Structure formats: structure tokens, C-alpha cells
Amino acid sequence: MYVLQVSLVMCPREGCFPGLYCTNVLSHPWLSDGCTLVLSSIWGSMQVLLAVNVVSGKVSRISPENSNSSWSVLAVHDNIVLAVSSSPANPPKLKYGCPSRIDTDNDEKTRWRWLDMPIPFMDYSEKVKASLSSIEFNILKIPVKDQEFLLTEGAKQPFEVIFVSSRFSSESESNENAFWEDACNPLIVVLHGGPHSTSLTSFSRTQAFLSSMGYNLLYVNYRGSLGFGEEALQSLPGNVGRQDVADVLNAVDLVIHKGLALPTNIVVLGGSHGGFLSTHLIGQAPDRFVAAAVRNPVCNLSLMVGTTDIPDWCYVEAYGKNGKNVYTEAPSIEDITMFYQCSPIRHISKYARALREKGVEVKVIVFPNDVHSIDRPQSDFESFLNIGLWFKRFLK
Questions:
Q1: 3-class secondary structure per residue, the chain
Q2: What is the pLDDT of residues 40-61, one digit of tens each?
């Protein structure tokens, strides 16, 4: 039996291994040497394939280093790896990989060759291909501007966003949904949940749908996201509703400065912690977004802690590392006050009703047969169809 030991990376150097962020391991992940396993791991805003030698602890990236796509391992047999690769502009493709050895200054190094595996039944219609051909994406680095927190070196490093753009324009005769009049497509700021997860450069049906409507998308991997080292990850607990809010606003400022968005044509979309963050944003910076859509949001930690099956999450996110020490199944008045101070509800009390009383147009859709993720196919479809049409009403 092997015990996998890979050093914790506190503050990764530019372009270097950021640490292991792997959600699952294959039942048979081993290469032919019997001591090297292949796994998928988050590396910044991408997911890559890694070969990890459990004897030496050596970690090697085996998916192409010049690829901004995200990769997932499907199977390993002998020295053959079957994987899938995709990006916001490219649906999943099967990849066949095998190693070939080369000598570099007498130091043996393993290089991997990857081949496409054509699958006829996964072909797409010409209309879908035309829609996807208009999509481009880039990974942008956002400098950290705020200094109000006691920042570790890793938390001072730039975080990343994925900017997905569509070349649709109002002059395009081939796209009936190209109804935008401004030079910049309207921008949807998309915020992931967790908060300790990551928006990846992988294909998403919902992203492709929103892009086909003529929206640009900005996926913000605020500090606290996986794949950027331990110090950046641990900087968020205890600072939710502040540090993540600052990161999103910094990212929005940068794309406006680069001419990629108009300040009057931006909306925000988030789910779970992304919904928590979205409601914080429209409460703390209501003039920055013309509309918002929040899926399964956490709006009030002080109420959530008494009903959720993860009350410890509330303590860690509110108190930081000390949350593990102060956690109790019977929150004190001080705890409830702390949870309230961290919650969006502090800025807008009883969201939907309060917004309606202020004359704000609000629409609430409930999916009674779903759990937190709202991932039943019918519910997922209805959810994002309504989101796309909702934003269309308010954007120019």
C-alpha cells in the first residue's frame, strides 16, 4: 500500500505547480510502473492531467502545457490514458495519450503525445457549430488592489478571470438574437459557489446558450478559489462578503478599463456562495449592475446555521480558521450577530419583499422537486432560459 505525500504549496510561482486540487481518483489510476498514478487536478482556472509518483513524490503535468482547455482523465491502462478535453469554445473531445521518452542533456524526461479520437455520434449540427465558432475566451490576471486585510504573500498574488466573448453583433444577419446596439456586448459576471471551488475553462451548455444570445461572460475566480495555492485559498474564510466582493469589483473595473465592457451594461449571476456574493454586490454596490440573477443563494447565515446540514461551514466562513474552535451546535447571540454581519441580508432586509417595496422589479422562481444544486435537466433548462430572458429585458 502506498501513502501519497505531495508537499503543500503555499504560494506557487508563476506557471508552476499550485498544489493538488483533485476531487476524485480512478479505481485503477496506475501506469505500468505501478507507482505512478494519473489524476485530474485544478491548476489556476484550468483542470490539467498530472502524473504523480507516490514513491518519490514527483508531480508532472502530462496534458499539453500550451493548452488553455480543461482536461479530465477517464481511464488508464498500462501506459495509455484516455481523457476528455474541452473549452468554452469547444465541446468535449476524446483524447488518447501515451508517453514517449526523450533525452535532454542526459536527463531522461517523459513527453506525452495526444491524439484526437473521432466519435461520429458526437457530431453537432451546422447551426451549433456556427454558434460555437463565434466564441473566444482568454484567461486574464487581476492584480490585488485592496490592502485592508492582513495579506499573506499568496493572497497578494493576482487572481484570475475567464473572459468569454461572442463575436455576434447587431449588424450580423446570421444571428436573429443579435439585438445589442452598443459596440461591447453586454456582460454577465458569473460567480461560482463553494466558495472553495473554481470556474474552469471547460465547456458548459449554459455558457454556450448565454453566449449564443450575444452576451459576454466574465467568470471570476476570486481569492479563495481552488488551484492558486494554500495561502490564497485560506485568505477568504473570515473575510466573506468583503474580500470576495472587492475581487469581483476589481475584475469588473479591469475589463471596463480594457474596453471589454460598458459600465452601464453589466449584470451579475451566481449560485450558492456565488448567489451569496451576488446579493452582497447588489447590496453594497447597487449602481454597478443593472440586473442580477441568483440561484440557490445563501442570503442569511444567521438563519442558515440552524437549519443546514453543514453548520460548521457557517462558522469557518464567518470566523476563518478559528471557526473550528468556536463551532457549537447551539450558536450564541454573539455567533448569530457575527453571521448576520457577514450576510447580504445586512444590506437588504428580506430581499424579494424589500426590493418590491422599493419599486424594484423582482421575479422569484421555485423548483420544489430539486435539491440545492437545481441540476435536474428540466429545472436547469428552465432556470437558465429564464435568466437569459430576464437579463435581455434590462440590458441595452
A1: CCCCCCCCCCCCCCCCCCCCCCCCCCCCCECCCCCEEEEEEEECCEEEEEEEECCCCCEEECCCCCCCCEEEEEEEECCEEEEEEEECCEEEEEEEEEEEEEEECCEEEEEEEEEEECCHHHCCCHHHHHHHHCEEEEEEEECCCCCCCCCCCHHHCCEEEEEEEECCCCCCCCCCCCCCCCCCCCEEEEECCCCCCCCCCCCCHHHHHHHHCCCEEEEEECCCCCCCCHHHHHCCCCCCCCHHHHHHHHHHHHHHHCCCCCCCCEEEEEECHHHHHHHHHHHHCHHHCCEEEEECCCCCHHHHCCCCCCHHHHHHHHHHHHHHHHCCCCCCHHHHHHHHHCCHHHCCCCHHHHHHHCCCCCCCCCCCCCCCCCCCHHHHHHHHHHHHHHHHHHCC
A2: 999 999 999 999 998 888 999 9
